[in-house]
Amino acid sequence: MFGNDRQQMRRVFVEAWRKAREGQPMQPVEAQIAELIREHPEYHDFFNDPAIVLEREFTPEDGQTNPFLHLGMHMGIREQVATNRPPGIADIHRRLSQRKGDHVEAEHEMMECLGRVMWEAQRAGRPPDEEAYLECLQRLLP
Question: Which of left, alpha, beta for 24 (phi over 0: left; psi -120 to 50: alpha)?
Fold first, then answer.
């Protein structure tokens, strides 16, 4: 999405949030990021302090979620839903959103499947298994 430069990627998030707070014009991806941050009030203070945002390390030992990873997964899922790739994911998202009463909460459930499939792919050194991903997502439905 933004290359492999962690600082550059983080700056995009910080800048999008700054522009949103100040009512400045934004590129479409910036508006998407700002909307995601708006939907996650637990991250507002974090993104309001660029010095912390740009330097903070997120390790499993600190017990906190990496907001960039979390929001990035939301963006990934929303892109999948918008393109219906893998085929059927848009319907799953719609049905989960109806059941949960909230698309953000539906995406939080979907992230478990996405994270598992990505981890397995990385561990095995292969592309993510779309079929396994869809099977996991379908198990979230009643």
Answer: beta
